[in-house]
Amino acid sequence: MKNYLTLSFLLVSTIVAFGQNTLKLKNQTFELHNVTGSIIRFEGKKVLKIERDLDAIPFDENNIEATVDEAHYARLAGLEDFENGTIEIKMYSQLQDPAPYPGIAGFIGVYFRIKPDDSAFEGIYVRPKVGRVNNQQYRNHAVQYISYPHAKFDVLRKSDPGKYEGSAPVSLNEWIKMRIEVNGDFAEMFINDTKYSTFVVDKMLGTNKIGGVGLYVDIGTIGYFKDLKVTKRSFKQPKTQDVKVDDI
Fold first, then answer.
1. Average pLDDT, the chain
2. pLDDT tens-digit series, residues 180-202
3. Neighbours of 201 (CB within 10 A)
4. Can you tell me the distance from the alpha carbon of 135 to that of 234, in angstroms, rounded to the nearest whole number?
5. In the chain, what are the domains?
């Protein structure tokens, strides 16, 4: 009887732990990696709500580069082989109040080509707080590309100022539809069904070419997500560039 009770306790504990680390929204299951989360009803629909878990990965405002752009995200379960194709998501960013750090900007976006052990991935995210401010320099930081672990935002901002960041008409406290098209080393991002892309990465920096897809938030963000759609496609040979850009 004692062994049966012990086994039952371990089984229940395992189920509870598993339930804490995964969430199901409609027919999709998400694994929580260093984020806390829940499925809630928001503006009349069920959505995935996540926030960065600062106990799992502490944040140090005196060592920002080492403690942001890490593996804090909700990973779509059952998808390990995304290489080329389209990722579409609707996301909504709120700021935590009180703010855990003065520089929070609503960081929210997508990781892709994630290795199973979280040791490498590509990412494109936005800073909605600065998307529509009346300052072009700040607007130019509204979009960010990163490649983990060697090319996080601060490294890229120093090595190639302006190349891996850009502007986008995004804002806090409203739904943002992001679509990312990935093809080989090239990626482009579309915002809110625009005909042409808002931001391009002409050569991604990661060496990991295939992996999972996840929904990302960083310090100070309450993120809401819905309607994730991932479409895999074969690599398409890029079209020849018609416009000379080296003489501008």
1. 91
2. 999 999 999 999 999 999 999 99
3. 22
4. 40
5. 22-232 (2.60.120.560)
